[in-house]
Amino acid sequence: MAKLMLFFHVLGAVGMGFYLLLPFFLQKTFLQERSVLRAMYWMNFISQWVLVAQFFSGGYLYIQGNYSLHWMIWVIVVYTGIGAFGGMFGYHIRKFLNSPTPPGFKPWARKVRLHGILSTIFLSFIIFLMLFPHGI
């Protein structure tokens, strides 16, 4: 069972790769296209549900392993950050797509870029934590 959960956990990590590619899609030319924004919104939506699956598979793997309390605290904090910033990223895109009169582009784009880049940074940090669970 542990090997199956590890398989799903790694598969979920690949699915979360959207956040690693996200900074490359946060340029002005991409953010002005509604079709690209819809695709980014749905990719973020799917990544958020993959994050839920990661929670359950990671919880099972944590119970089976021997990890320090400090490592677990860092994982919880960073995991929550990925979910929070990814959720805010999706919220601002959805708000822009659904509003009849979109807000000003520059402040909106700044918010979207900030949340997208923070999601990428937090995902990079959790990859680091998963690679070195017992320290460097």
Gist?
The protein is mainly alpha-helical. 81% of the residues lie in helices and 0% in strands.
Description:
This protein has helices at residues 2-15, 18-21, 28-31, 34-64, 69-98, 105-131. The chain is built from 6 helices and no strands.
Determine the fraction of residues in helical runs and give it as a percent range.
Answer: over 70%
How many beta-strand runs?
Answer: 0
Q: How far apart lie the N and C ends?
A: 28 Å
Shape: elongated
- Content-based structural category: mainly alpha
What is the string of SSEs from the N terminus onward?
HHHHHH
User: Approximately how much beta-strand content do the residues carry?
Assistant: under 5%
In round numbers, the mean pLDDT is 90
The radius of gyration computed from the alpha-carbon positions, rounded to a whole number of angstroms, is 16 Å
- Poorly predicted ranges: none
Topology summary:
Elements: H1 2-15, H2 18-21, H3 28-31, H4 34-64, H5 69-98, H6 105-131
Helix pairs in contact: 1-4, 4-5, 5-6
Question: Which tags fit this structure?
Answer:
about 140 residues; mainly alpha; 6 helices
